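MOLECULE: protein
FOLLOWS: sequence and fold
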Amino acid sequence: MRDQEPAVGAAERRLSTKETAELLGVKPETVYAYVSRGQLSSRRDPSGRGSSFDAKEVEALARRNRREGGSGADFGGELSVRTRITLIDTDRYYFRGVDATELAARHTYEEIAEWLWTGRLRPGVTFTAPEASVAVARRAVDALPEHTGPTDRLRVAAIAAAAADPLRFDLSEDAVLGTARVLIPTLVAALPPVRSAHRDQGPLAHRLWGRLTGRPADDASLRVLDTALGLLVDHDLAASTLAVRVAASARAHAYAAVSAGLGVLEGPLHGAAGGLAHRLILEVLDRGAAGPVIADELREGRRIPGLGHRLYPGEDPRARALFGLLEDIPRAAPALAAARDIVATTARHAPLHANVDLALAVLTASSGMPSSASETIFAVARTAGWIAHALEEYGERPLRMRPSGRYVGPRPPRPLPE
């Protein structure tokens, strides 16, 4: 470490190491790490007891850390976190700079996951899990009540797999990647199969199919499912992804970070939204037209599921890609027509476009899957994205995802309550 002398005659306010650490919200040793990286300059205290720091320079670094660490200005701005993973721009989105819909059209879910994690493609890669990991996860999931939802099953499977992995606290990149390649197939294998002749080999989409429906799989349907997994692998800082990054910021291991994401995913405004769209599709098919169904939804003051997305002024590109593939599946035609009827009917009142939840609903409703199937697809797909964000966060300053509370309660001191 080399202390730098300030310019002669410079008028400046100096801070001690302790004051600097408090202002930056870090430990004193981290202050000297900033100096060694050239982010702060220091000057040896004349007393010989430590160093002092330029207050303006420290304050500028504190502002930069708050901005990069995600705190909104004056508590009113939106959270902002640097990431190299996903960019959403108008009606398109990109994984590490590459159009995500084009990636999903040409590559499998596993290949896209590798691209997201490493920036490299591994053609033909498939994820497999050791039998011991699968056995532990299956026993835990099998012990759950029959009515347990898919996200609860996946969360329990993740916790069980973590408990069986004594090396889970190794947060090095290679170790986390190894965990990811085992955890995702373990989650799928832990789900109870719907049909006895389910596949446990081949691409992940093939193995997942038999855990979503009892109908035999055809190539066109498997292609839609695999494409859906690839399209859903990440979507910037969605609520569940933010939870994952908060966990990773506290240096939770990868299994725990994924569990945090699964906990948020279960909300009706996130991963469970596809189930609502699934039920809407079935009701339109049952009643023969979208008009009376939409009228009932509006009368009850409910938001129409499967329509609109705050990040896309036009049609969700994920929905557009899936609808194009679903057109090649004859049995999907009625559900596809119902979805288009929903969009056209609602457009008379509000200019809302289809989102990915409506496209997933067409897939699940036309494939004999339960309404919860889209939640399963979403969770399995997004696990790869969560791992990518956890890896990125492990490379950042620990506990940076720690905003300050804005206290608005009564001012202390107050008397003890009677």
In short: Strands lie at 14-16, 42-44, 51-54, 86-89, 92-95, 98-99. Residues 1-10, 70-78 have pLDDT under 50 and may be disordered.
